[in-house]
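Subject: Interface between my chains keeps coming out wrong

I've been trying for a while to get a sensible model of this assembly. When I model each chain on its own everything looks fine, but I need the whole thing in one frame so I can look at the contacts. Pasting all components below, labels as-is. Any help appreciated, I'm running out of ideas.
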Amino acid sequence: MRLSRYFLPVLKETPKEAEIISHRLMLRAGMISQQAAGMYAWLPLGYKVLRKIQQIIEEEQNRAGAIELLMPTLQSADLWRESGRYEDYGKEMLRMQDRHERDMLYGPTNEEMITAIFRSSVRSYKDLPLNLYHIQWKFRDEIRPRFGTMRSREFLMKDAYSFDLSKEEAVKSYNRMFVAYLRTYWRMGLTAIPMRAETGPIGGDLSHEFIVLADTGESGVFCHADLLDTAIPSADVDFDGDLSSIVSDWTSLYAATEDMHDETEFDSKVPQDKRIAARGIEVGQVFYFGTKYSEPMGARVTGPDGKDTAVHMGSYGIGLTRIVPAIIEASHDDDGIVWPVSVAPFEVVLINLKSGDAQCDAANEKLYGQLHAAGLDALYDDRETGAGQKFATADLIGIPFQLIVGPRGLAAGEVEIKHRKTGERETIGVEDAVARLKALIEPERRDAA
Ligand code: ATP
Ligand code: MG
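Reply #2:
Try treating it as a single job with all components included. I did that and got this:
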């Protein structure tokens, strides 16, 4: 992408309304634009990050055996009257009527709808286990939307729903999602710790929140320090096998959100020098809730004994539009964002130090073509502006590698590579630069394979 033809409305000033660093940087880097309270347009740079996050989530959900579909944003109130949640949900639910005066709502979550889809077509235990997910916009009329897309009213969520014949089988489905989540956050460069959590309005008796530690987080959390370097399951983990030992590696060490925190247990189970009492950002939550919806809504299957049973369900959410600021909270410096390669909007930015100079332009064009041919996702800063502004933009928008090309270096056959994260600079022969970048970038992609 040529920056001169792109849409990147960066801001020089720090926006006053933004209280936390990720919100400030997302506005300054031209990633989002507010359209109403708690509602944001995703501008091209931000949208590219969001799509990369979506891709990782889909790959890991599919690997774990979940199947993608797409449900509508608007739902009928009658569906929610069946589960009893239409009245319970309160003011967070955005309610409306269509032209026939039928009560509708903008879905805050999809347990009811997926249960209705399930009951209309699944009859036998032979079709289980089943896990269906979608990635769709949700609306919750938050009393205090804030921190940009961290807590917005309209937000993008991945929500998966599992169906099993028994609690025992449902726990296996829960474990599959638990392991998929560990891999998903790791691939995004995030350290997210599963902590036992309260089930809230979703209901149920088993739940974990996946939490990224950050001072600006809204939840108080308590955990064992060793969880910060517990091993992440590899890509060849067998989702058809027994995952309980992986899950217990994580759940045997103390980790709880403030609602579920037990100070006595924390004191007795965690040595003094291993205690973390901190703040965190909830980037996902998994629930097992048994027959809470299947019972009242009549989602039943015939078991091997010929008897009808209500299915055991779980639901599994990830907030995509919250993950973007969570990554920024975890990875930035005074100059701007520092994207992990796997979610970076571009992998490398080519900085032409003298746009307009025929020879310099020709060398840059050639490198730009080579970057593309090497399969690297490159942004080419071809604007006719000063080098200082180009460096500032590149640092602000956080592209992991900068390839800096100017007349002086070219005269010596050299260009420079700057690592955004460490600030390290390498001078390298112009012919070797692209191969070097490829070697730096490919291992950092954390690809599906
Ligand atoms: P919170 O406690 O932060 O309000 P929640 O527990 O109500 O969130 P869930 O129902 O667990 O949210 O939704 C699944 C995920 O969706 C959350 O883990 C979070 O990542 C994301 N999410 C929930 N509410 C919002 C919001 N208002 N803005 C952005 N993301 C959200
Ligand atoms: Mg939650």
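Reply #3:
Confirming on my end. The pocket of magnesium ion (ligand 2) is lined by residues 209, 282, 285 (CB under 6 Å).
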